[in-house]
Every structure is written in structure tokens, then in C-alpha cells.
């Protein structure tokens, strides 16, 4: 049994103009200690997926179908009381902005101790000891001093380390990291990602890394999913996706990396932008932006096609695979 299994997940938002689907047909598994990257532009549905796993969606958003199985138990069907024993305990989430996560009127120590005592029946002294231990694990200098400080007294990188330490407090089985380095400079970003990788490997914690940066995904994760307009359009081993992207959208993301541009020339970019949920095109949602678009792309939703170790939802890839199979049969016949 997989640690986490998501089957046919659908998430909808009720608007005045009617309901829209934010996530459709989401399927994946996560094993203990596995590191999964979820990639895509803003509006692809990455963060909604992260929130859905912990059933943290606020109205008008709700889980309209499918199941999210954690050790065989469906999180989507749990009561609020049952979910409290999972959130922050067995599954932790690290958000984009640490200042939105940390309470500005409580010291770091008060927040960590409160979190521990909410989930475990331990004394104040034991809670402080565990909190200091976690601060040391994330290489916070002078943890005793930081324990008594307020969030505004710390730098952005330090605050993000504190948030990671809080995420590790309960020794979770899964950490969901939603753009954990967005607000940090490049040097600090690298330090934070190295830290998360080290902690996950040391503690055998599964990681779901949500990001728009394929470079980060290539360094940290073993499996990857590329999302577009609420659907998975390519998934498989990270190395295979990075080295031989199959879907035109994934190829566009790869070509948009700064290192792929010719020095002195403009950066490559995918034309157009992500469609709003109310105006997702028929057929393949990427078809208005795709340079390889065919007539079938405008009318039929593509099924997944196996290509190497990956699954790709693309009519062009399916056509190429059929042509390859036909050519091979002719060659074998001759």
C-alpha cells in the first residue's frame, strides 16, 4: 500500500456565474521517503492540489469527487476532528510566505511549544527540549536565543528555517512544500532546498515540492508531475522529463529556463498565458498556445500515452507512438 494515493480527484469552485473545475482527473501515488515535484505556471492548480490533500480548501472551493488515501484512509471523507490528528502531525505543510504562517505576536518558542502540546501530552519542559532540538536540526544559530525572539526579529531565510523546523516538530510522514523559496534570494534558496533534501533523506520523510522552477525540481525530486489548467499533462521520473520532455508545454517550460537562452538575446517564452478557469478551451487546454496544434487538439481531450517511463496527455505524442509502432511492424514483417 502506498503512503499516499490520489485517485480521480476533482476540485470545484462555486462562482456566481456557475461552478468551475480547478482540478480534474488527478491521479498519483507517493511512497514513504519519495520526493515528488509538482510543476507548472501560476494558475495551473498546484497549490490547490496541495491544499486539497489536507482538505484545507475554503468555500467556495470543495472536493467534488475522487479520493485521497493516506495509509488507506480517505482524507477527503474525514471529519474536521479526524483531520486535526493528521494535519501538522502526520502531514505537514510549508507555505510560500513564512510571515503568513508565523504568528507575529508570539515568540518562536511559544508557537513551537503550543504546536507540540496540541498534538502530544507532554510537559512544557519536554516541548521546549524538542523545539530546540528541531531548531538545531535546521542549523539555526544560537537556537536558545531564537527561541525567545519574535518573527519580525529574524531574516527571511531564518524565518523559512523556523517554518521548516515547525513542519518537522511532529516527525511527519509527508511534508508538502508550496513554493518554499519564492521570497528568498538565490543563495538562500539553494541553502533551504539543500536543507530540506537532507532532512527528508535523514528522516525518510516523503516530500511533495510545489514549484514553477524546473531547475529546483531536477535537483531535489525523483518523480515529477507537470500540471496545466487543473490537469496533469506529463508525469514520470524527473530525470526523464528534464532530459527528454515530451509534452509541448513541458518543452516550453524547459526552453524558458535562463540557461537555455543564447547570451545577449531575449529569453525564450511560451506565447499566451494560462486560461482562467471559466474559459478553459475545449479539447487540450494548451491548444491555443501550442505550435504543434492539430485539429483533434481543439475538440478531443487527450488520453495518457506511455512514452519511456513517462505518461503524457498529448495527441501529438500519441500519433508519433502509433507511427513508430506501425513502422516497427513493417520492419519486422520484412
UniProtKB/TrEMBL annotation:
A Pfam cross-reference name: ABC_tran
Compartments where located: Cell inner membrane
Residues covered by the ABC transporter domain: 4-254
Membrane topology of the entry: Peripheral membrane protein
SUPFAM superfamilies cross-referenced by the UniProt entry: P-loop containing nucleoside triphosphate hydrolases (SSF52540)
Keywords for the protein's UniProt record, in alphabetical order: ATP-binding, Cell membrane, Membrane, Nucleotide-binding, Transport
Catalytic activity, as annotated: a dipeptide(out) + ATP + H2O = a dipeptide(in) + ADP + phosphate + H(+)
Entry EC number(s): 7.4.2.9
Enzyme class: translocase
One function term, GO molecular function aspect: ATP binding
Principal localisation: membrane
Family according to the record: Belongs to the ABC transporter superfamily.
Protein name (Swiss-Prot/TrEMBL): ABC-type dipeptide transporter
Amino acid at each position: 500500500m502506498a503512503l499516499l494515493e490520489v485517485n480521480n480527484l476533482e476540485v470545484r469552485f462555486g462562482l456566481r456565474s456557475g461552478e468551475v473545475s480547478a482540478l480534474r482527473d488527478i491521479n498519483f501515488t507517493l511512497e514513504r521517503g519519495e520526493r515528488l515535484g509538482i510543476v507548472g505556471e501560476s494558475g495551473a492548480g498546484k497549490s490547490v492540489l496541495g491544499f486539497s490533500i489536507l482538505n484545507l480548501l475554503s468555500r467556495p472551493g470543495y472536493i467534488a469527487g475522487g479520493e485521497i488515501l493516506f495509509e488507506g484512509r480517505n482524507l477527503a471523507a474525514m471529519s474536521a476532528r479526524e483531520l486535526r490528528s493528521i494535519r501538522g502531525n502526520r502531514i505537514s505543510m510549508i507555505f510560500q510566505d513564512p510571515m503568513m504562517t508565523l504568528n507575529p505576536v508570539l515568540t518562536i518558542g511559544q508557537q513551537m511549544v503550543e504546536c507540540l502540546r496540541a498534538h502530544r501530552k507532554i510537559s512544557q519542559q519536554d516541548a521546549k527540549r524538542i523545539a530546540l532540538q528541531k531548531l538545531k536540526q535546521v542549523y539555526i544559530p544560537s537556537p536558545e536565543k531564537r527561541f525567545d525572539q519574535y518573527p519580525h526579529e529574524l531574516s527571511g531565510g531564518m524565518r523559512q528555517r523556523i517554518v521548516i523546523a515547525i513542519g518537522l516538530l511532529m516527525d511527519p510522514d509527508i511534508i508538502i512544500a508550496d513554493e518554499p523559496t519564492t521570497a528568498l534570494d538565490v543563495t538562500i534558496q539553494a541553502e533551504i532546498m539543500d536543507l530540506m533534501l537532507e532532512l527528508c533523506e535523514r528522516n525518510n520523510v516523503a516530500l511533495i515540492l510545489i514549484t514553477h522552477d524546473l531547475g529546483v525540481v531536477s535537483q531535489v525530486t525523483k518523480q515529477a508531475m507537470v500540471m496545466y489548467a487543473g490537469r496533469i499533462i506529463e508525469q514520470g521520473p524527473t530525470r526523464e522529463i528534464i532530459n527528454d520532455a515530451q509534452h509541448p508545454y513541458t518543452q516550453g517550460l524547459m526552453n524558458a529556463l535562463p540557461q537555455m537562452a543564447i547570451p545577449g538575446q531575449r529569453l525564450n517564452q511560451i506565447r499566451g498565458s494560462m486560461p482562467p478557469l471559466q474559459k478553459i478551451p475545449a479539447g487540450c487546454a494548451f491548444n491555443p498556445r501550442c505550435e504543434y496544434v492539430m485539429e483533434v487538439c481543439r475538440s478531443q481531450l487527450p488520453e495518457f500515452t506511455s512514452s519511456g517511463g513517462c505518461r503524457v496527455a498529448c495527441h501529438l505524442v500519441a500519433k508519433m507512438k502509433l507511427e513508430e509502432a506501425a513502422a516497427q511492424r513493417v520492419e519486422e514483417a520484412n
